[in-house]
Amino acid sequence: MIVVTQNRKKCIGCNYCVELAHNYWRMSRKDGKSVLLNAVEKRDMYSVRLDDDAFEANEAAAKACPVRIIQVKKIN
Amino acid sequence: MAPAGNFESMMAAIQGGADSVYFGIEQLNMRARATMNFTLEDLGEIARICNQHGVKSYITLNTILYDHDLSLMRRIVDEAASQGISAIIASDQAAIGYARSKGMPVHISTQVNISNIETIKFYALFADVMVLARELSMIQMREITQTIEREKITGPSGELVRIEVFAHGALCMAISGKCYLSLHTHNSSANRGVCIQNCRRQYEVKDRDEGHEFHIENEYIMSPKDLNTLPFLDQLLDTGIDVLKVEGRGRAPEYVKAVTQAYRQGIDSVLEGTFTPAKVDGWMSEVEKVYNRGFWGGYYLGKKLGEWSDTYGSKATTKKVYLGKSLHYFPRVHVGEFKMESHKLNKGDKLLITGPVTGVLEFTADEIRVDDQPVDTIEQGVSFSLKVPDKVRPSDKLYKIVDA
Question: Where are the domains of chain A?
Fold first, then answer.
């Protein structure tokens, strides 16, 4: 399993995560920031547990994010 | 027009004598990365402060816009209109068109790079104020303002189109807003407000045949010095432009105050006919004290491209050292109580206090007391009282100003 986390407040809406990990991210048409699908919010941090096969795309999104608000962690 | 990256800088701009301030809301502005951007909820407070001081308020809404940004863009424009913000500074046609359709005044941002009279005519359908490209010369500016008068080019208000130019602050090596350097190396688009300013670094040239590497004459060849028009402010105003803009929403409040004040005094002396080289020297030494990469007259004097900075970061002649926070203010005796959190304070030190309501106070430590007894020195950890020139508020920050 992996955990993907987003510090959503700081998102500038550049769209990279949606391009690189389209199965897991969408742009919100409401506030222009990206949405981590099925994520749960806790103190402004959004996170979701995903299968290992989601690692590569989300890691690419995390690396491309210009404001470095995406984290991908492997858990057991 | 002075930059306001936060409430401190907004007050500093007002204290420095600005006629108007500009600021970003949420992420759709050219300083999206700034730790403190105003939010939609701040708009009422901003409008209230500006109205109270007779200062106009402008929102920068000037990134490129994607479909997913349109709803937020509309909300910012609607909210700005209902809160009484003076105008929107926009570059994307979506924002320009929407603001116009709502009757919200629009300024055309420098991001549009307006460089000729036909473009002015085009945008006159939408806007009464336009910021010219920073890369024009004063001869070109004058040609544009004269043609506006001659051909009576008017904006939606029916008045002649007014022209705004940058007077002071950072310049790009690219035509403003047309740079992909930061996007290329760090996925971080300048046109979405997240320029990482890698142009400011030092670069090497590498010989690909044999691998020899050269520094380039110790110059930062992609980092222009800062624009400073004080030495020829009379000529700049004489081109017929209406508004001078100071760059720097990422700058500290004391920067905003010092630069705004210098240009306020400069403009007033040009208008009074008392503009002299001696006065320019005085203003120059004031703006040299705060953040700068060295100065040049930009492209306005029609010089060859580029005077490059020879340092990384600032050449400011002074710097601020954080001392502590304000705890309390005694209005009758104009004394503030402070807690010394770091470094040391001596009687006679030059001091700076900044705060969201206080703005910027600069003064000398003439009278410092501990337990009501006058002292000459305050060490770290001590609570003390200090005579201050104006009201201070709890949590205002106290600094000393030292030579850099």
Answer: 2-74
Q: Are strands B20-24 and B2-3 parallel, antiparallel or unpaired?
A: parallel
Between vectors from CA B94 to CA B161 and to CA B156, what angle results, nearest 5°? 25
Please answer yes or no on whether B27 and A29 come within 8 Å at the CB atom: no
Residue of B27, B189, B194 with shortest CB distance to A32: B27
**So what's the architecture of B319-403 in CATH?**
Beta Barrel (2.40)
pLDDT for B111-121, tens place per residue?
Answer: 999 999 999 99
Hey, are the CB atoms on A27 and B194 less than 8 Å from each other?
Answer: no
Chain A residues with CB under 8 Å of B195 CB are: none
pTM of the model as a whole: 0.87
Separation CA B404–CA A16 (nearest Å): 41
Class of A2-74 in CATH: alpha beta
B30 DSSP 8-state letter: T
Q: How far is CA A25 from CA B15, B32, B131, B189, B342, in A?
A: 45, 21, 37, 20, 45
Residue with tokens 């979405």: B192
Task: Please give the ipTM for the structure prediction.
Answer: 0.81
List CB contacts (< 8 A) between A35 and chain B: none
| Residues in B 37-76 with any Cβ partner in A closer than 8 A | 66-73
Positions of CATH 3.20.20.110 in chain B: 2-170+226-296
CB B171 within 8 A of CB B298: yes
Q: Which residues pair with B58 in a beta bridge?
A: B22, B87
Pick A67's closest partner by Cβ from B26, B68, B194: B194
* Range B307-334 burial, b when 16+ CB lie within 10 A, else e: bbbeeeebbbeeebeebbbbbebeeeee
Interior/surface letters A24-39, b for 16+ CB within 10 angstroms, e for the rest? bbebeeebbbbbbeeb
**Chain A residues with CB-CB distance to B76 below 8 A:** none
For domain B2-170+226-296, give the fold.
Answer: TIM Barrel (3.20.20)
Q: What is the pLDDT of residues B282-320, one digit of tens each?
A: 999 999 999 999 998 988 988 666 677 777 778 899 999
